[in-house]
Design a protein that fits this description.
Blueprint: H1 21-29, E1 35-38, H2 44-55, E2 59-62, H3 69-78, H4 83-89, E3 92-102, E4 107-111, H5 118-121, E5 131-135, E6 146-157, H6 160-167, H7 172-181, H8 187-196, H9 202-208
Parallel strand pairs: 1-2
Antiparallel strand pairs: 3-6, 4-5
Helix pairs in contact: 1-2, 2-4, 3-7, 4-6
Keywords: ATP-binding, Nucleotide-binding
Organism: Desulfotruncus arcticus DSM 17038
GO molecular function: ATP binding; ATP hydrolysis activity
């Protein structure tokens, strides 16, 4: 354990001693907890226990390694958790990726060249103008133009329509399209807004937020 937090009971995973994520979660459930945080759902057993716990009134927080928010749902399905259990247990998913922040000491505004590849990423017409920002590089940032990092996010709220799609065991792509149609702000969209605000560069967003749906209105 890295930190001792007052009011929080923590259990450290020790596979050699038999304390796996699944075993730890089963032990925690016997303590009648209000909220449970599972560091990571790595296997089918842990996923099944976490979903069952959520369906019996426990508030569960956890992490999964996926490309985007809808991918977390299909990952649980791929692990063998029944679609109806996943549908009834998930309230929402937050996906995030880190991008570099433009150095405030050397930030400058610029206009995209007519043939710049960023134009296609931004779905711009040839005559469209947009002001973006970049770092020239200075001694404050080691001449790289960036200083620090920040997160871009994708927040998926699971509503009734989406629950019906989950029960059908649809693909990640179909879930993503439904989510975007329902108003989800994608990693790409959130990143573009932050680039327009001068917080990061559009090249950073292209580097970390590219998906198969990038050429779709997302």
């Amino acid at each position: 354990m890295e930190y001792i937090i007052k009011g929080i009971n923590q259990t450290q995973v020790n596979v050699k001693a038999g304390m796996t994520f699944a075993a730890g979660l089963r032990s925690i459930l016997r303590q009648d907890p209000d909220i449970i945080m599972v560091g990571e759902i790595r296997d089918t057993e842990t996923a099944a226990i976490a979903v069952r716990a959520a369906n019996t009134g426990h508030q569960i927080f956890s992490t999964l390694h996926t490309n985007d928010a809808p991918g977390a749902i299909t990952r649980l399905l791929d692990m063998g958790v029944e679609p109806f259990r996943v549908s009834s247990s998930i309230l929402g998913v937050v996906a995030q990726r880190l991008v570099r922040v433009i150095c405030p000491h050397c930030k400058e505004a610029y206009q995209l060249d007519p043939g710049a590849p960023e134009r296609q990423f931004l779905c711009l017409e040839p005559n469209d103008e947009i002001t973006l920002y970049r770092g020239k590089g200075c001694e404050k940032c080691g001449n790289i133009g960036y200083r620090g990092r920040m997160a871009i996010h994708e927040v998926l709220i699971v509503d009734t329509e989406l629950r019906n799609e989950i029960v059908k065991n649809v693909s990640t792509g179909e879930l993503r399209q439904k989510s975007l149609a329902g108003g989800m702000i994608s990693l790409k969209q959130d990143g573009i807004e932050k680039a327009k605000q001068g917080l990061t560069t559009i090249k950073e967003i292209m580097r970390v937020a590219y998906t198969q749906e990038s050429n779709i209105q997302s």
